[in-house]
Design goal:
alpha/beta; Spore Coat Polysaccharide Biosynthesis Protein SpsA, Chain A; seven-stranded mixed β-sheet; 9 helices
């Protein structure tokens, strides 16, 4: 089972079309799938759009009455995936954005890498001309601003587009008493990748083209404020020492516990 996890806030104009296009590409991949979407206190028509699509798609909507932020939305989505799976060594979660900056066409490649043996696959972005220059430069600087969260072989830890085997996710949550993220926004994306990489036997990457011409809302971040946030995240966040391989193998042999 593939659990496609999508955090969303005020993405009514794009989230429905994204789900429908994902339905097509996942159908071609001939794998079972389920959509998990958080509506993080949206003030637009997101709730109504998701309600209509839930009648036609295998879709579960998690509603936050008030905005709780990206990290809280991701935590809820991944927890739901763990609660649903009965085969964590086979099943995976795909995390992606709702604003169409992540194209659905990259998802089959993420799944192929998982099927070939990777436990974590992180998409590394190239940028179309529709992406503002300051955004491109800041994404390239992010690994240096958050250098304590860097993962060898990954140059874009803040892409927000990844696939993870659920056994690795389960082990990461166990090691951190259930909670994964201590920061938010781009920092949370890089923190999540760094944490999951500690519990993955193999980390892989794929390339994709990020584009912003299909977005219907402006970027919520401002360049200088975001740069300072990333720098503070890099100084503040501390990861525990990675578990030894024998420890990972032992956790994988242990019976599954409730992830709640």
């Amino acid at each position: 089972m593939i659990y496609v996890c999508i955090p969303s806030r005020d993405e009514g104009p794009t989230v429905g079309l994204l789900l429908w296009k994902l339905r097509r590409v996942l159908g071609e991949a001939a794998r079972e799938y389920e959509f998990l979407v958080v509506d993080d206190g949206s003030s637009d028509q997101t709730a109504e759009v998701l309600e209509s699509y839930a009648k036609a798609l295998p879709l579960t909507v998690i509603s936050h009455p008030q905005p709780l932020g990206y990290a809280a939305s991701v935590e809820d989505l991944l927890r739901q995936a763990l609660e649903r799976t009965d085969r964590p060594k086979r099943d995976c979660a795909v995390l992606m954005e709702a604003d169409f900056s992540h194209g659905p066409e990259v998802v089959p490649e993420l799944i192929k890498r998982m099927e070939s043996g990777a436990d974590l696959v992180v998409a590394q972005a190239g940028f179309s001309d529709s992406v503002p220059s300051w955004y491109r430069w800041l994404r390239r600087l992010a690994p240096y601003l958050m250098r304590r969260l860097r993962v060898r072989g990954l140059d874009d830890p803040a892409s927000g587009l990844l696939a993870v085997r659920l056994i690795s996710l389960r082990n990461a949550r166990r090691a951190r008493d259930g909670r994964l993220l201590t920061t938010d926004g781009w920092g949370a994306k890089a923190e999540l990748v760094a944490i999951l990489a500690q519990h993955a036997r193999r980390v892989d990457s794929v390339s994709y083209l990020e584009r912003h011409d299909l977005r219907t809302r402006p970027l919520r971040s401002r360049p200088w404020a975001l740069a300072k946030e990333l720098w503070r995240t890099g100084r503040r966040v501390r990861l525990p020492a990675p578990p030894a391989r024998a420890s990972i193998e032992r956790m994988e042999r242990e019976p599954a516990e409730s992830p709640s």
